[in-house]
Amino acid sequence: MDAPLHRYFPKLASFLLLLSATNVSAFAQTPLPAQYAPVATSAVSVPVSSVAPAPVAKERGVAARGGWFVGAEWLAWDVSQSNLSYAKTLNPVWLTPQRDASLAPSGNGVRGRVGYCFANSFDVSWNYVNFSADDAGKFDASSAPDSALVATPSALDVASSRVAAQTSVDLETHDLEIGRWLAFDSLSFRPFASLRWIEIGEDFNVDYAYSDLSGGEIANKISNSFKTEGYGLRLGGEGVWNLFGGVNLFGKGAISALTGSQTVRTLETDGVQGAITDYYGKSSETFVGVDAQAGAAWKIGNFEFKGGYELNSWSDAAVVDGVKSDFKTDGFFAGASWTLCF
């Protein structure tokens, strides 16, 4: 089986960065042809006030010289969907909820970035995100025996002697990005574009049991999983407002149009009847992603420390019980970066 395209992103990014740095160095060292050599002229006195000094980019975001940069951030996000997986236990007589869990896990992840910036304020970089979350132990209704079970996508409503449910989520993105910083006094703005690859996966599992006529326990399991993979173009911009002492406020937003595939698996097994529901499907999908973040940063020397809040949303990227829904993450991030660009 051919390797997925995203596995070549790091190698491609490294090659482009190295090639760019080599070209810049070679251009700087190449001597001018003789016909373009400087011609000696007599000194001419020019009033200082008649020549405007060349601007020197010193604010964050505008490169005064070329160089490498690298950064890493810690992510603390919550996961949500417009149509959540769920598990409920109901009173078998009145059908009132005794335990109700719309499973929305929280988790942690990392974001890394490495790139090269040029003296003309352009930069190229590879950006990577790896995030995982689960809510193991969040829903355990073993203390409510003889309750009816309703769960996604349960085919049975039975009086259960024990019920436990959990959801796990994995998210991974790669971006090969190019952008350019533009300075306006204390404000800087950077439009950017990137080639994006993304993979979203979720596993929802319910383990439950009920009693047969002889009082024995029959174990059952519900599994609902999906994986969405997409490639496409991401466009956006980020801005920085430099305040004082290296402190600044920043904001960033982007939109992406992605196309790819979606794999869905639904399985429910019964200890007596065997497989009650067993479905597997794969389809081609197109979906749109939106992301935004805002926060504050402090730059000291070649280092910068930052933190803030962000939101990510992908339309129709999740599937629950055959129904598509938006997949969202939101939460906080904090990190540091090192650069030779300024």
Describe this structure in words.
- With 342 residues, the protein is mostly beta strands.
- It has a single domain (67-339), classed as Lipocalin (Beta Barrel).
- 6% of the residues lie in helices and 64% in strands.
Topology:
Layout (H helix, E strand, L loop, with lengths): L8 H21 L37 E15 L4 E5 L6 E6 L3 E12 L4 E13 L4 E2 L6 E5 L7 E2 L1 E19 L1 E3 L2 E25 L5 E26 L4 E24 L3 E27 L2 E18 L2 E17 L3
The helix fraction, in percent, is: under 10%
Distance between the termini: 45 Å
Molecular shape: elongated
Mean pLDDT: 78
Strand adjacency order, main sheet: 1-4-5-9-11-12-13-14-15-16
Structural class by SSE content: mainly beta
What is the ordering of alpha helices and beta strands? HEEEEEEEEEEEEEEEE
Q: Count of helices?
A: 1
Q: What is Rg?
A: 28 Å
Residues in β-strands, percent: over 45%
Q: Please indicate the count of domains.
A: 1
Give a brief rundown of this model.
The protein is mainly beta. It has one helix and 16 strands. The model is unreliable at 23-30 and 32-61 (pLDDT under 50).
